[in-house]
Specification:
It contains eight helices and seven strands. The protein is an alpha+beta fold. The chain has two domains: 64 residues, no CATH class; 124 residues, no CATH class. The strands form two sheets. Strands 1-2-7-3-4 form a five-stranded mixed β-sheet. Strands 5-6 form a two-stranded antiparallel ribbon. A hairpin with a 2-residue loop joins strand 3 and strand 4. Helix 1 runs parallel beside helix 4. The two termini are 19 Å apart.
Amino acid sequence: MAVFSDLTVAENMVLAARDGPLQAARLDWVFSFFPALKRFWTQPAGTLSGGQKQMLSIARAVIEPRRLILIDEPTKGIAPVIIEDMIRAFRELKRERTTILLVEQNFRFAEALGDWAVVMDDGRIVHRASMAELAGDHRDAAAFVGIVVGGSRMTAASPGPLLARPTASFARPTAQRPRRHGDRRHGAWQC
């Protein structure tokens, strides 16, 4: 969901609640995962940092129970500690029987939530498997999401844009075609 910069955080949340007034219990649930939103409740959304706007956008999407949530790169611009809160929130949504279609480059985040994985390259599906299969097959993980496994911990050949574990950095696989500007692999993860 978009964030309306001229409106306060509170007004953004009210607009997202299509079924009526904000439910106090649901709002408390959202604040338990994104406490910063409570602090910024009366501020215009345009004054928030990029990560805080991302939190608000996600909070708007989950302020009411939904059967399906489509979300594109929710961890972009988010601090690692907030990502852990986000994982907890999305796991709770799964327990509520919400289907989540997640497009994400942060493999660790996708692995923590996903049941199924679809890897796309240039708009084509190049791999499908259960998330457990993809995460367990280090060769496929290296080929499809740029993860190189060394010993028992994940490491990287060189710094790159993908993150999977807080203590690791990831790079493009060395055995892949040269990338054009803006060319990125994406994973679609069904959670």
